[in-house]
Design a protein that fits this description.
heterodimer, A: seven-stranded mixed sheet, B: alpha/beta, seven-stranded mixed sheet, 16 helices, elongated, binds thiamine diphosphate, binds iron/sulfur cluster
C-alpha cells in the first residue's frame, strides 16, 4: 500500500526534531493508533474527500491526530468529540466529519455525548479505539478493561466492585439511530483488511448521507499492557476478542436522508415569523392619562392560573405601546404555576418605564379572594381596586381613599356562555373605573390579539361592554 | 493492479520502531529484527531480505508507521535525505490554498412597528437578525422560552436547533459550529452556565466566537428559579480553567436584550472570543416595547474557520500548546486581546453630573434604581445612577467621571455583593484610592431590591435588609 496523500509529508508534532523524526508518529512502537490512522487516511483518499473532511481529535494519545491528517481539523475536550462533530456537520452538511476517540474518552467521560449522538443518527462517523486501558494518562483502568486485568488504578486486577467491561459496539448497535456498527481488530492480516474496509464503508455511508456509523477497533497499547508489541497483538486476540466479539453488529439499509437547504436570510420571512408589521394601528388617546399619574401608572392583576390575568395584563401593555407610550408586563407564577396564584405587574409610562415592578400599584384587578387579601393593602392611597364579586363575597377593609369596584366578572362571562372572557369583562371594568385609555384603545388591542380567531371578537366585545356597564351601574 | 506490478517494500531504519508487526505479516520470512540498536533512534529496527519477496504488501499493511515500510518506487530513496527537511518538503506541509475571508453581508430590513415581546424572545430575535441559524440548548427556567422560540422559528429558516443531552453537549456543539466559522448561541440559566464553563474555556483557548445568553437565577446549587444576579463573578472572572475573559453585557430592558444580543455576535467575531449576555430572571420574562433594527446580517465564513471545504482545509481549531513557551506565548496573545477589548466598555450615566449620591446597578435592579433616582430628585435629593452595560471590561473611566464629586456610593444588586466586588476591583486597578465608603442595598433568593428599600437607604431612615 502506498502511503495515503492525506498524511502530511512530515509531522509537525516533531518540528523540534524534524529531520530525524519528521516521518515517525508519536505513538509507541506497535500502537494500534498508527494502523487505524493509516486506514482512515487511505479511506479518505480513496473516497476523494480530503477537501470536505473535518477530523475531530479527542483527548487521549490521539490528541495530536491533526498533526497527521491534511484535512480540516478540530480538537475537542475530553469526551466531547461527537457533539463537536455534530456542530461541524450542521454548520456544513456537505462536510464529512469523523470523530476519532479512545475508550476512556468515548465510553467514560463522554458516554452521554456518545449515546445521544448515536441515537440522533445524523451522518457522522465515529472511529472508536478500544485498547482496554487509558493510554495517555499512564495506564489506568478504562470502562473496557477486562475482568482481572490489572492497571494502575486496578492494581490487583479489575473485580466486581469496578463493574464489568463495557461493550460499546453492542450498546450502540442496540440503538435505533445508527445505520452501521462493526467491531474490527488489527492483530492479523485478515482482521486488518476487514478493519480497513469497515472504516471505508462507514465513511462512505456518511458521504451518501445515510446516517451515523460506528467502528470499534480492538487496538494494541503495548506500553500499558506491559508486553512487547507481538505479545500485545496476541493478547488482544486471545483475551480481548472473546469479551469483545468481532463482526458486524448492525447494518441496515436506509435511503439517503440527510439533505439540508442552505439557511434562509430573507428579511421578510424573519419579520413575518416575528409578527412584525409596518401597519400603523390607529391611536385614540389624546395624551397620557395624567389624571392617574403624570409619568408612570402601575397596575397589578392577580388571580389563579386560568383566570386570564396574564392575558389581560399583556393586552394593557400592548394597548399602551400602540398608543406610543412605553409599557412593561412582568408575569409571576408561583411554584403553583400549573393552576395556582398568578399575578402580573404592569406599568404604563409616558416616555420610559423606570421601575417595572408593581409592589404598590395604583390599580389592582383581583380575580379571587386570596389575591384581593394579599394585594389589596398594597394599593396606593387614592388608588383603584376592581375585583370579581362573583367569587369574592366579603372584601377586606381597605384605606378609605381607595375606590373599590366589585364587578361580577365570572357571572357576566358565564351568562355570555364562556367563562374565559371574564378577563375581558375586567378590562371593560378597568376602562370605566379608571379611564386609563379610551374604549377604542383597549378594543383595538383585543381585536388585534384575536385576529386569527375572528369569530370570537363579537363575544369579547360584548364582555368588554358588560364590564363597562356594571361599573357604570355601581356609580349610580 | 496486477500482482507482478506491485512494488516490494522499502524500509528506512530511522522510521522503524521495531514493533515487529511486519515480521508476523510476512509469510515469506523476509523480515527479521536486527540485532543492532539504531544509534539515531535508540530503537531496534527490522532488516529486510527481499530475495523471497513476492510483493504481497501485507507487511506494509501491518506497519503502524505511515512512513515505516513504504513501496520502493523509483527515486524515492532520495526523499529520505535528511539533511534539510525544509528544502525537501517545502515550508508548507499542505498544498491546500491559503484561506481567505468570505465577508458577511448587511441586508436592509423594512421598518416595522415596535413589537411587544418578552426579553428572551427579544434576545432570540436579535440572534436571528445577527445571522445566527445554529442554536443548541438544554432547557432550564427561566431561559427556556428563548430555546423554544428558536425551535419554532429555525426549521422555517432552514436553520438548526438541536436540544442537546446536557449543557456540556450544548457548548461543545457550539464549539463545532463556531469552529466551522458560523454564528452560534445558546440560552441557559445559572446551573446550566456552570456546566458550560469547560467548553467556554476551550472556546476561549481555541479563539472561537459564540454567544451565551445566561438568564441568571438564584443559587448556590439548585437554588430557585427566581431572578438573582448570581453569575457576575462567574462571567467576569470564572470562565473555566486558565486565563479566560469574555466581554460580558448586562441588558436592562427587552429592547436591550435584542440590541445587546446583536452586539454580542458582532463582538464575538471581531475578537474571536465568546461573549456573555447576562440577563436576570425578571428581564427574561418581562414584556416590553422592542423596536427592530433597520438591517440584518448574513454571515460569511472567516478565513480561520474549519468549514470542511478546500479553502479552509489548512486550518486547525485547537487549544493545545504543549510546550510551556508556546502556551505562554498564546496567553500573552490572549492578554493583548483582552486589553484591546477594553475599548468596548459601555455604560449609562443618569443624572450623575451634579449628583451627591451615586447609585450603581445593572440589569433589572438598575431600572428600580432609576425609578428611585427620579423619586429622590423629586424630593430634592441630588441622586444619580451609574449603570455598567459591560460588566467585563468594567467601564471604570465612566465610573470615575460619575462618582467625581459624589459624597455617597450605593451599590444596588440582587446578589451578595458580586457587583460591588467588580466596582471595587475596577477602582482599585484604575488606581482610584479616594472614594466614598460604599454602601449597599442587596437582596437575594429571588427577591429584587425594591425602590422603597433604595429610598430608605439613601434617605437614611432605617436599616435595609442585607
Ligand atoms: C475533563 C478531563 N478529565 C481528565 C483528563 C485527563 N485525560 C487525558 S487523556 C485521558 C485518558 C484517555 O484515554 P483513552 O480515551 O482511552 O485514549 P488512549 O490514550 O488510550 O488512546 C484522560 C483521563 C482530561 N484531559 N480532561
Ligand atoms: S500509550 Fe498505548 S495507546 Fe498510547 S501511544 Fe503508547 S501504545 Fe499507543
Ligand atoms: S511484500 Fe509480502 S513477501 Fe514481501 S516482505 Fe512484505 S510481506 Fe514479505
Ligand atoms: S511494522 Fe514498521 S515499525 Fe514495526 S518493525 Fe516493521 S517496519 Fe518497523
Amino acid at each position: 500500500m502506498s502511503k495515503a496523500s492525506v498524511f502530511y509529508d512530515k509531522f509537525e508534532r516533531h518540528s523540534h526534531g524534524e529531520g530525524l523524526k519528521g516521518h515517525a508518529t508519536h505513538y509507541c512502537p506497535g500502537c494500534g493508533h498508527g494502523l487505524a490512522h493509516k486506514y482512515l487516511a487511505e479511506a479518505i483518499d480513496e473516497l476523494g474527500i480530503q477537501d470536505r473532511t473535518v477530523a475531530i481529535s479527542p483527548v487521549g494519545c490521539s490528541v495530536f491526530l491533526y498533526y497527521y491528517f491534511d484535512v480540516g481539523n478540530s480538537q475537542a475536550a475530553h469526551g466531547r468529540a461527537p457533539v463537536v462533530a455534530l456542530g461541524h456537520k450542521f454548520a456544513n452538511p456537505e462536510s464529512v466529519v469523523i470523530s476519532y476517540q479512545g475508550d476512556g474518552d468515548l465510553a467514560s467521560i463522554g458516554l452521554a455525548e456518545t449515546i445521544a449522538t448515536a441515537q440522533l443518527g445524523a451522518p457522522i462517523t465515529v472511529i472508536f479505539i478500544n485498547n482496554a486501558i487509558y493510554g495517555m494518562t499512564g495506564g489506568q483502568m478504562a470502562p473496557t478493561t477486562l475482568m482481572g486485568q490489572s492497571s494502575s488504578t486496578s492494581p490487583a486486577g479489575r473485580n466486581e466492585y469496578n463493574g464489568q467491561p463495557m461493550k460499546m459496539a453492542e450498546i450502540i448497535a442496540g440503538l435505533d439511530g445508527p445505520v452501521y456498527v462493526e467491531r474490527v481488530a488489527l492483530f492479523d492480516a485478515k482482521q486488518r483488511i476487514k478493519a480497513k474496509k469497515a472504516i471505508q464503508k462507514a465513511i462512505k455511508l456518511q458521504v451518501e448521507g445515510r446516517g451515523y456509523s460506528f467502528i470499534e477497533v480492538l487496538a494494541e497499547c503495548p506500553t500499558h499492557l506491559k508486553m512487547d508489541p507481538e505479545a500485545t497483538a496476541k493478547w488482544v486476540k486471545e483475551c480481548m476478542e472473546p469479551v469483545y466479539p468481532l463482526g458486524v453488529k448492525k447494518d441496515i439499509t436506509v435511503e439517503p436522508w440527510f439533505k439540508r437547504n442552505p439557511p434562509c436570510f430573507k428579511g421578510e420571512k424573519l419579520l413575518s415569523l416575528a409578527g412584525a408589521t409596518s401597519e400603523h394601528s390607529d391611536r385614540f388617546c389624546k395624551g397620557f392619562p395624567t389624571h392617574l399619574d403624570a409619568q408612570d401608572i402601575s397596575l397589578k392583576l392577580a388571580g389563579s392560573g386560568g383566570d386570564g390575568a396574564q392575558t389581560a395584563a399583556m393586552l394593557i401593555a400592548r394597548a399602551a405601546i400602540s398608543e406610543g407610550f412605553d409599557a412593561t408586563h412582568i408575569p409571576s407564577y408561583g411554584p403553583e404555576s400549573r393552576g395556582g396564584t398568578s399575578y402580573a405587574d404592569v406599568h404604563v409610562a409616558k416616555d420610559e418605564v423606570l421601575n417595572p415592578g408593581s409592589p404598590d400599584p395604583q390599580v389592582l384587578i383581583a380575580f379571587n379572594t386570596p389575591s384581593l387579601v394579599k394585594f389589596g393593602p398594597t394599593v396606593r392611597k387614592g388608588g383603584f381596586v376592581i375585583y370579581d364579586s362573583s367569587v369574592v363575597t366579603e372584601a377586606p377593609v381597605l384605606d378609605p381613599s381607595i375606590k373599590v369596584f366589585p364587578v361580577p366578572f365570572t357571572g357576566i362571562a358565564t351568562d355570555l356562555g364562556k367563562a374565559v372572557v371574564k378577563n375581558i369583562v375586567a378590562l371593560g371594568a378597568l376602562q370605566a373605573a379608571t379611564g386609563i385609555f379610551p374604549k377604542d384603545t383597549l378594543l383595538t388591542a383585543i381585536r388585534v390579539a384575536l385576529k386569527d380567531k375572528c369569530a370570537l371578537i363579537p363575544l369579547n366585545e360584548e364582555a368588554f361592554a358588560w364590564g363597562i356597564k356594571s361599573v357604570e351601574a355601581l356609580d349610580k | 493492479m496486477a500482482l507482478k506490478e506491485r512494488p516490494k517494500p522499502f524500509l528506512l531504519p530511522e522510521y522503524c520502531k521495531g514493533c515487529g508487526r511486519c515480521l508476523d505479516a510476512c509469510a515469506k520470512d523476509c523480515i527479521t529484527l536486527s540485532d543492532q540498536i539504531n544509534p539515531l533512534t535508540g530503537l531496534v529496527p527490522v532488516e529486510l531480505d527481499l530475495a523471497n519477496c513476492n510483493a504481497c504488501g501485507l507487511c506494509m499493511d501491518a506497519c503502524p508507521e505511515p512512513y515505516g515500510l513504504r513501496p520502493a518506487h523509483e527515486g524515492e530513496i532520495q526523499d529520505f535525505e535528511l539533511e534539510d527537511p525544509a528544502k525537501l518538503f517545502g515550508v508548507k506541509p499542505s498544498d491546500a490554498p491559503e484561506p481567505i475571508d468570505l465577508p458577511s453581508e448587511v441586508l436592509p430590513l423594512p421598518r416595522t412597528e415596535p413589537l411587544v415581546i418578552k426579553g428572551t424572545y427579544a434576545s432570540a430575535l436579535g440572534a436571528l437578525l445577527a445571522g445566527c441559524r445554529h442554536v443548541y440548548g438544554y432547557p432550564i427556567t427561566p431561559s427556556t422560552e428563548g430555546a423554544e422560540l428558536m425551535a419554532k422559528f429555525l426549521p422555517k429558516l432552514d436553520g438548526t436547533f438541536i436540544q442537546a443531552v446536557s449543557e456540556v453537549a450544548t457548548v461543545n456543539m457550539m464549539y463545532g459550529t463556531a469552529g466551522a466559522g458560523l454564528p452560534t448561541m445558546t440560552f441557559t440559566s445559572s446551573p446550566g452556565f456552570s456546566l458550560m464553563l469547560e467548553g467556554v474555556s476551550y472556546m476561549i483557548g481555541a479563539e472561537l466566537p459564540g454567544v451565551f445568553v445566561d438568564v441568571m437565577r438564584g443559587g448556590p446549587g439548585l437554588g430557585n428559579i427566581a431572578p438573582e444576579q448570581s453569575d457576575i463573578k462567574l462571567a467576569c472572572h470564572g470562565l473555566g480553567h486558565g486565563n479566560t475573559h469574555a466581554i460580558t453585557l448586562a441588558p436592562a430592558t427587552p429592547q436591550e436584550m435584542l440590541d445587546l444580543t446583536m452586539l454580542a455576535f458582532e463582538l464575538s467575531f471581531k475578537y474571536r472570543n465568546p461573549v456573555i449576555l447576562l440577563g436576570d430572571g425578571y428581564l427574561g420574562q418581562m414584556t416590553g416595547k422592542v423596536q427592530l433594527p433597520e438591517t440584518m446580517i448574513k454571515p460569511g465564513i472567516p478565513k480561520w474557520a474549519v468549514y470542511g471545504d478546500a479553502m479552509h482545509r489548512r486550518n486547525v481549531i485547537t487549544s493545545i500548546f504543549l510546550t510551556e513557551t508556546d502556551l505562554e506565548a498564546h496567553n500573552v496573545h490572549l492578554n493583548a486581546k483582552y486589553e484591546a477589548m477594553k475599548v468596548e466598555a459601555r455604560s449609562e450615566s443618569f443624572l450623575c453630573d451634579d449628583a451627591e449620591v451615586i447609585l450603581i446597578a445593572c440589569n433589572t435592579p438598575a431600572r428600580t434604581a432609576k425609578g428611585a433616582v427620579q423619586d429622590l430628585r423629586n424630593q430634592g435629593v441630588k441622586a444619580g445612577l451609574f449603570r455598567p452595560i459591560t460588566l467585563w471590561p468594567f467601564p471604570v473611566e465612566e465610573l470615575k467621571k460619575a462618582i467625581h464629586g459624589a459624597q455617597r456610593i450605593v451599590v444596588v444588586e440582587a446578589s451578595a455583593g458580586q457587583l460591588e466586588d467588580e466596582v471595587r476591583l475596577a477602582l482599585s486597578k484604575a488606581g482610584v484610592r479616594q472614594f466614598p465608603e460604599i454602601e449597599s442595598v442587596r437582596r437575594m433568593g429571588g427577591i429584587l431590591p425594591q425602590q422603597s428599600e433604595i429610598m430608605t437607604r439613601v434617605l437614611g431612615q432605617k436599616e435595609v435588609l442585607a
